[in-house]
Amino acid sequence: MASGTLTIDLDALASNWRALNRASGAAVQTAATVKAGGYGLGAGLVARTLAEAGARAFFVAIAEEGAAVREALGPGPAIYVYGGHMPGDADLLAAADLVPMLNSIEQVTRQFETMPDAPFGLQLDSGMNRLGMEAAEWQAVAPLALPRRPRLIMSHLASSDVPNDPMNREQLAAFSAMVEGCGVPCSLAATGGTLLGAAYHFDMTRPGIGLYGGRPFAEARPVVRLSLPVIQVRDVAEGEIVGYSGTWTAPAPARIATLSGGYADGILRSLSNRTTLWHDDIPCPLVGRVSMDLLTVDVTHLPEVPAALDLIGPHQGIDDLADQAGTIGYEILTALGGRYARQVLGGA
Ligand SMILES: *Cc1c(COP(=O)(O)O)cnc(C)c1O
Fold first, then answer.
1. What mean pLDDT value characterizes the chain?
2. Considering 35, 200, 330, 340, which one is annotated as catalytic?
3. Whole-prediction pTM
């Protein structure tokens, strides 16, 4: 088998949810954001694991994702859709018992016209200018929407990964002013907001990345490990090049291992000549370009070449890889391709 192996630690996932649940305080419900296929790890697998751990509310980006999570969870848990109610969604929202977070007057109108008795929530913009109704729109909509008993009113923080960013307090103030006295459960915090403290929690937190072991949840247990098999080993002489466009030249005689895994598997090409693979505790530099399905590693210093090397593991997490690639852990996770053999540790 030449595919890499992606190992997903369900006990670590559940433990991260429990830790964020403790951080959220006793009166606050801790939901779980499982959009983008559970941040690339498998929405059904992630949702079932977290439901088992105690999560009763889940968030996805679009109705189709919500239907898949409903399929995995069965009836009972609440599933909210950040993208709200798009044209043509009514049947799916109803069939899968999803709660759209209505983002605009247009979506509110669509909801009340096509499914007047169905559950819904509302998303407000508190300054990020991405999704949700602004204060003036909300003033117009509130008298129509509040009597219909929304399940939840939420907003989203733009900079919650930077605790001292003044934007956090500004958005908190803006959201508080918009929801004051509304009598509906409210939510503002994702992972970053959960860690900012109780003032940001309102009635529900809805962490995503922290569950999967990513920043800014520094105490998170790592959830994924990625191991790539060696397909071939060769010796190159001083001055020979390795890989497309010859971006690496052997400074001395070297032994090069070619591994299965490339940018089609989410190993970003910007990692070319910039990251390290690991044989247990021994670092082995990636040399040359990352190709579509392959990458090349300098293993000259290993006494013998192992069957596989780790790209993500105890010595190098998703955020380390993200730093090397000039991106964020979220992109590393959601880019993970469909070609890996997926191995699951722990769980019920
Ligand atoms: C993705 C997302 C979340 C979860 O954010 P994390 O930073 O992954 O915890 C919460 N709320 C909204 C609106 C989102 O888009």
1. 97
2. 35
3. 0.97
